Amino acid sequence: MAVPKRKHSNSRTGKRRSHDRVKKKQIAYCPQCSSAVPTHTVCPKCGYYQGRTVVEPQEA
């Protein structure tokens, strides 16, 4: 069985883990109602996505 001969240093471990962080959610603004919406998502307020109304908005 392969076993490491020496311990990896903290800096080497940190370099490997540097890309493992959680990235921020991309936010765009709806062109219809100007509310903040995650990208590639139907707007929950007006149901607008890619230039057309996809879903009828629910009345509160």
TrEMBL record:
Keywords (A to Z) from UniProt: Ribonucleoprotein, Ribosomal protein
GO MF term (any one): structural constituent of ribosome
Pfam families per UniProt: Ribosomal_L32p (PF01783)
Region (Disordered): 1-25
GO biological process, one term: translation
Gene Ontology CC terms: large ribosomal subunit
Domain of life: Bacteria
Family label: Belongs to the bacterial ribosomal protein bL32 family.
HAMAP family documented for this protein: Ribosomal_bL32
Protein name: Large ribosomal subunit protein bL32
Native source organism of the sequence: Rubripirellula obstinata
Lineage, top ranks: Bacteria, Pseudomonadati, Planctomycetota, Planctomycetia, Pirellulales
